[in-house]
Amino acid sequence: MVINNSLKGVLEGYASGEISLEEAELLIGGLRLDMIGSCAKIDTGRNIRCGIPEVVLSENKDLPHLISIVDKITQANGRCLASRVTPAQVEELTKFAVEKGYIHEYNPEGRMFIMTRDEKVKARCEKRTGGIVGIITAGTSDIRVAEEAKVIAQEMGCVVKTAYDAGAAGIHRLFPAVKDLLDAHAFVVCAGREGTLPTVIAGLVDRPVIGVPVSVGYGYMGGGEAALASMLQSCAVLTVVNIDAGFTAGAYAALIANMAAGASGSGNAKNAENADEQR
Asked: Are 196 and 168 in contact (CB under 8 A)?
């Protein structure tokens, strides 16, 4: 969806011949709300207004409703992301995509399902903006949240570099990991238990850091509450999102990275193209 992240982007795509007149009309028309029976109002214009694609939260949705919503967004925007998908939902979404001739991808760790209308849209969505996001986790148990953040940041056009299992309990692991991510425009740092790692990272880098408390830990406040409280009381300057909110963190980091890449010109775009993207 990179080329469609603003009304200006749609018009530029049409002027360059990358988007047909019909596609441009459809995308601009996406500023409306589309209804699906009485169950959902689909904001097909979110990407144009906000630079963040509409993402369908799959938790607690009936399969018929979920499939109808994903299909409607795929038709309207050419592409749709569904988050927090269950194995049963993945199975049915895959069957539906095959029947419709849609391209589909699934990230099992991040529990993200992507449905794309055709190869032309897929190629357009895989263009990079020049923004670079670094994602770090304290432990391997935090990877599921980190992968959710990674998918949305990539969907918004960023190169994503990751360093997993670099926690503060073995701080010697941290410095090599951070060194490889120093060209990132923004960092997402996921940590459970006492949630120390975002504070440490924020004290080492001169870029925005977004802390994500993860629902990992034992006993009292072990569901992410201790990590959240710790990050909110950080002595370093960082932003904190809700527990397990990988999507929010990834989207916020991508907005920062895309603005930074746009402000600094083509040099960052070239750096992003040459970066070792970890997918």
From this structure: yes
**How wide is the angle at C-alpha 211 spanned by C-alphas 231 and 159, nearest 5°?**
170
Judge whether 261 and 272 are in contact, CB under 8 Å: yes
Check if the beta carbon of residue 47 is closer than 8 Å to that of residue 7: no
Q: Whole-angstrom Cα distance, residue 108 to residue 95?
A: 17
Rg of the chain's alpha carbons, rounded to an integer? Answer: 19
- Tokens 């990834």 belong to which residue? 250
CA distances from 63 to 67, 73, 93, 105, 107 (A): 6, 16, 9, 18, 19
Q: What is the DSSP letter of 32?
A: S
What average pLDDT does range 257-271 have in this prediction?
64
- 80-108 mean pLDDT: 94
The conformation of residue 52, written as its DSSP 8-state character, comes to: S
Q: pTM of the entire structure?
A: 0.79
| pLDDT higher than threshold 90 for residue 87 | yes
DSSP strands (E only) in the chain:
33-36, 40-43, 55-57, 79-83, 103-107, 112-116, 132-137, 159-163, 186-191, 209-213, 239-240
